[in-house]
Amino acid sequence: MSRQKTDLLQGTLDLLVLKTLQPGPAHGWDIAQRIQQVSEDVLQVNQGSLYPALHRLEDRGLIASEWGASENNRRAKYYKLTAAGRKQLAEETESWRRFSWAVTRVLQSG
Amino acid sequence: MLDKVRRRLRALTRRRAVELELDEELRFHIEKEAERNAARGMNPEEALRVALDRFGRFENIKEECRDARGVRPVEEMLQDLRYGARKLRKSPGFTLVAVMTLALGIGANTAIFSVVNAVLLRPLAFDQPEQLVRVFGTNARRSSFSRPHSYPNFSDLRDQNQTFEAMAAYTSASAALSGDDAPEQITGVIASADLFRLLRAKALIGRLLGPEDEKRGGPVVISHGLWQRRFGADPGVVGRVIKLDGREREVVGVTPADFSFEFVTAAADFWMPIDPASSLYQQRGAIFLEAIGRMKPGVSLEQAGSDLSVVAARLEQQYQESNAGIGVRLAAAQEELVGDVRPTLLVLLGAVGFVLLIACANVANLLLARSAGRHREIAVRRALGAWRGRIVRQLLTESLLLAIAGGVLGLLFALWGVKLISAFVPENVPRFGETSIDLRVLGFTLAASVLTGLLFGIAPALQSSRFDLNEALKDGGRGGSDGRGRTRVRSLLIVAEVALSLVLLIGAGLLIKSFSKLRNTDPGFDPSSTLTASLSLAPVRYDTDEKIADFYGRLVERVRTLPGVETVGAVNPLPLSENDYAFSFAVIGQPPPPPGQRQSASARFVSPDYFRAQGVPLRAGRVFNEADRAGAPNVLVVNEAFARRHLAGADPLGQRLRLGINGIEGEIVGVVGDIRGTSLATPAEPEYYVPAAVISSNDLTLVIRTATDPATLAPALRQVVAEMDKDLPLYDVRTMESLVARSVARQRFSMTLVGVFAVLALLLSAVGIFSVMSFLVAQRTHEIGIRMALGAQARDILSMVIRHGIGLTLVGVALGLAGAFALTRLMSGLLYEVSATDPFVYGGITALLAAVALLACYLPARRATKVDPLIALRYE
């Protein structure tokens, strides 16, 4: 039961990370901030749990990382989408839309 | 994909750098968050605290990130390996004993497997060897007989079939190679033109034989070995003329070093074409050719068989007189070549597998003993949160390390073992020379090692990872006691070892009894103090009966005067020489048998003194004398088996036979004892003897009975022959004893190997029982102390411990007897006059094993009686 929940959360988190990286490379803190801002603080997760997700996505080849200089010239690890990541994002966005549309329909019908 | 591999590889090999980066990345996040908090007006401390709070548990996140790298299992394995290696290094005594035990087991298995691989598994070294089949004749009257072909029959089979790409006939040959060096008798093959094309063989230099060579005085191809030995590997040998049996032949090619045609002999040194025009090749009754064929692609053995049967049936119709009842039988070439050593090799493989199982049991025992000492370590690790599977994995990794180390060392043992085996392998084991450690053997060793590691590791690993906090704490103080479960596993191991050893020992016992029966079999002649040596007079120079008779007459006279010589006889073929000439005959006065059912028996051509020299006893009548020569009335001698089978009760003396050799008729004047002429294990066959002076034979073997060591006579004998004819080689100079030994070499081989394995098994088991019993006694010191304090006598303690050990042994013996009963049947084919359930062997071996087990129990038990109650109790 709890396992399923994590999977669901994890999948969602993955999708959000990919989406956040669509405009361009970002480091972990940036990604966390953006997800929070965009979701208007609804999605409250531990910021730390973002990192395992990032590493997993990198291991799957959906994103790539590179060390670069941050705004105030500190070393930071930047992530960017790979071609595979872009494809995955498109696919998952589509299926998420369908899923939420279906859920919405069910909820409205009651 | 490549990126992924590179990243994972980096995660494995540059662990420290990757960890530092992870640290830096997370730290950056927290600092950044703290900065933002500070910018929102928190003081620095609060800013950091809130940032850490929002981040979550730092170490957990790091752990999750590590998991996300996807190399976790590998990492853990490396960790286990490092840990295991360190542990093993710390107890060198244990490691040494375990690795040596395993190396012995795995090495012996690898050695035997490499032989099995070379002989049974590896395809023949010809192109598409699965298409090659041997073609035999059959005789409806003699079902097990593989009948050779006559040339006319062979050529009809070759020309009228639909399913063969090519078919070739061949026969073995022997010839004297003379020239500048000392003459040498070499063996070779006479083959029809298609043989090399059929085998798809290529010449090393020059060319091989082809259709144009099938003629009188055709050319010769020589082997790589002969080329090296006699011609100094001179490429100019092609085109040279050499003298074989006094006849000049042109060398047209040399076969490659790895070319061997073991269907005739592995040692063939020359290849000559047949001469289809010669008279021998014109007779449908002259059967002396073997045949081999290459089936067309996609044709099955059955299809080819029925195709040839159609041809054979047609020939039967066409040539009633010679072909009645004659059919064909096909056999896959490889199967035919190695089929009769298969049982021996499989028995050896089974035996050596048992040794490995016993080695496994011993190492498992060692591991159990050791794990008792590691109880605390494991309890601590469990308490610190390692789950059981993780500990089992770690312990198994350790076992695998041991097994792999044993495998590597075992490979070295195997190399050495193969050398040892080749020193006494019988010369007639086909393909043995191809034995080598190839990839398949390496794979076998690896698989055997891994399986071994799992096998001996799993029970101890499961056992010691079982974690009971109470017990751990209770035991902790005493440095580890043996739990109940562990005792049960050890008991099972003892039972298994006893059972396995018993099966192996009984197998060895049967083979030993069988061999001793074989060695004690009376061959029908006296092989002691007898030297034999063969000569073949070149037909070119010894072309008349007079010349041959004159030469042999003078030779025998001269040899007789050599010091130490008692009697000189001459015979062809020599018993146990693997030559056999069967000729048909008819008993005059008996009704003639129907066509195709002519009687035949082995014939030997002998000099008058042969029977005395060989030690064949005369039973009735007389043997030959000097007067029995060409021109005098023909006389014959038969053996008792001949009289029994073919003369049915009548007095053999005075009966007359008409022989299938030149239509000679002769009177039986004597009956001699039966001899085992094929091998010691083969019962005597009917034979008849013809005076060598009547039918002159270019080939003869001298049989010389000496008063001294027969082997010392050889140089003088060579000297005599060289003086009489410098181009005439004397060959196969052997004592009769060595021929007898050769005829039982295969039985000796399997007996020795299985015997060695059985002794190894017995020793391993004895050590196993001894160590387990010692350990149990040590564990029960406390209990024994109490018993003694309460008044138990030394005798009571002794019998208590021994009863325990003997109980286990008896269970093992019962299982072992059942196993032996079931398994030794499989080797009944290897046994000679011994039943696979021989009660004496079963009883004797069981007693032997029980005695050894008793001793292995007694020694620790005696130690138990020396326990001083005071010390035992204080030990607590």
Protein model, in words:
The complex is a heterodimer of chains A (110) and B (876). Chain A is α+β, with helices and mostly antiparallel strands and 110 residues long. Chain A has a single domain, classed as Arc Repressor Mutant, subunit A, CATH 1.10.10.10. Helix content of chain A is 62%, strand content 15%. Chain A contains four helices and three strands; from the N terminus they run H-E-H-H-E-E-H. Chain A has a three-stranded antiparallel beta sheet with strand order 1-3-2. In chain A, a hairpin with a 5-residue loop joins strand 2 and strand 3. In chain A, helix 1 crosses helix 3. The relative contact order of chain A is 0.15. Chain B has 876 residues and is an alpha+beta fold. Chain B has four domains: 69 residues, no CATH class; 183 residues, no CATH class; 310 residues, no CATH class; 179 residues, no CATH class. Chain B contains 28 helices and 22 strands. In chain B, strands 3-4-9-6-8-7 form a six-stranded mixed barrel. In chain B, strand 18 and strand 19 form a beta hairpin. The longest helix of chain B is centred in the middle third of the chain and has 37 residues. About 1% of the residues of chain B have low confidence.
State the gist of this model.
The complex is a heterodimer of chains A (110) and B (876). Chain A has 110 residues and is α+β, with helices and mostly antiparallel strands.
Quick one: overall form of chain B? elongated
Number of helices of chain A: 4
Number of domains of chain A: 1
Helix content of chain B: 40-55%
If interface size is counted as residues with C-beta under 8 Å from the partner's C-beta, which chains form the largest one?
A-B, 23 and 26 residues
H/E series of chain A: HEHHEEH
- The Cα radius of gyration of chain A reads 15 Å
**CATH architecture assignment of chain A:** Orthogonal Bundle
> What form of chain A results from the Cα inertia axes?
globular
> In CATH, what is the class of chain A?
Mainly Alpha
Radius of gyration of chain B: 38 Å
Report on the biggest sheet of chain A. Answer: 3 strands, antiparallel
- The beta-strand count of chain B equals 22
First CA to last CA of chain A: what distance?
26 Å
Low-confidence stretches of chain B: 475-482
Q: Helices and strands of chain A: which structural class? A: alpha+beta
Number of domains of chain B: 4
- Backbone structural class of chain B: alpha+beta
